[in-house]
From TrEMBL:
Record protein name field: 2-hydroxy-6-oxonona-2,4-dienedioate hydrolase
Domain of life (superkingdom): Bacteria
Protein source organism: Prauserella sediminis
Record's keyword terms, sorted: Hydrolase
Entry's EC annotation: 3.7.1.14
Length: 290
């Protein structure tokens, strides 16, 4: 299926008690939710617009802008803390669930948190990076340090340098792609929200792994949904060794590693990513109909 979807035709808003949530919806079938990562200029559309046609073949696919990103309401504090409640608001407001959730980076962390805290809402979990703890690599990672460098002093050069740390093959970083992220990243409201998440204080907190490790371990052990965790072998944001803890602690977990791939598997290894995730999501349905 090669049908391209239009931003405006798929765009929707949901009014909640916290503010308006923006999302895209396309396709037919049971519901599926896609959650984007963090970073300059990110949104649900920026992360998953290229994958929407593949998932819309079999699912009514929802692509959410979490608070502080895209066209959703601004986060009052760190957008990381606003994300999970906003996802639950979306599920409640649209009367969705249980449903599979696919999350990239921060979106994977949020999807895992919801699967752990609301097991009745998540039928399957698929993540790209974003979960676990790096066992051998230093923290914060190279990609996170470059991200903070951009946030503290934005420039085209620093944005491209950060984007290069996100991928294995830098040829995919066309001028059009970089300019799209630059335009969104320098929107005053989005820039302010991003500074709440990434700053020098957050870098210092990441250096102390012990502070968040117990909660991360406990959260992973509570996930009951069948889970697919995906990593790029060359990820410079959430290194591959982060997968080891998650793979061991999540009860029903499988791992897929994309070779020659950085942090943006859904973009850099688009066809393989779509094939792997669709196979995982449709496996039970195929067994029922065979």
């Amino acid at each position: 299926m090669s049908t391209e979807f239009d931003f405006h035709e798929t765009s929707r808003f949901l009014r909640t008690s916290r503010g308006d949530l923006h999302y895209h919806v396309a396709g037919d079938g049971p519901p599926l939710l896609l959650l984007h990562g963090s970073g300059p200029g990110v949104s649900g559309w920026a992360n998953f617009r290229g994958n929407l046609p593949a998932f819309a073949q079999d699912f009514t696919t929802y692509v959410l802008d979490m608070p502080g990103f895209g066209k959703s309401y601004s986060a009052e504090a760190n957008p990381l803390f606003s994300a999970a409640p906003a996802v639950v608001d979306l599920l409640d407001g649209l009367e969705l669930g249980p449903l599979p959730i696919v999350g990239n980076s921060m979106g994977g962390a949020i999807a895992a948190r919801i699967a752990a805290d609301h097991p009745d809402r998540v039928s399957k979990l698929a993540t790209i990076g974003g979960i676990g703890l790096p066992l051998f690599n230093p923290s914060p990672s190279e990609g996170i340090k470059l991200l903070v460098d951009f946030v503290e002093d934005p420039s085209h050069e620093k944005l491209r340098t950060w984007m290069e740390s996100m991928v294995y093959d830098t040829d995919i970083l066309t001028d059009e792609f970089v300019e799209m992220r630059w335009k969104a990243a320098t929107d005053p409201e989005q820039a302010t929200d991003l500074k709440k998440l990434y700053n020098k204080a957050s870098l210092q907190a990441m250096r102390d792994r012990s502070s968040g490790a117990p909660d991360q371990v406990a959260m992973l052990t509570r996930i009951q949904a069948p889970s697919l965790i995906m990593f790029g072998r060359d990820d410079r944001v959430t290194p591959l060794d982060s997968a080891l803890l998650a793979m061991r602690l999540i009860k029903r977990c499988e791992l897929h590693v994309f070779y020659d791939c950085g942090h943006w598997a859904m973009i850099e290894r688009k066809a393989e990513f779509e094939d792997v995730v669709r196979s995982f999501l449709l496996r039970d349905r195929a067994a029922v109909t065979s």
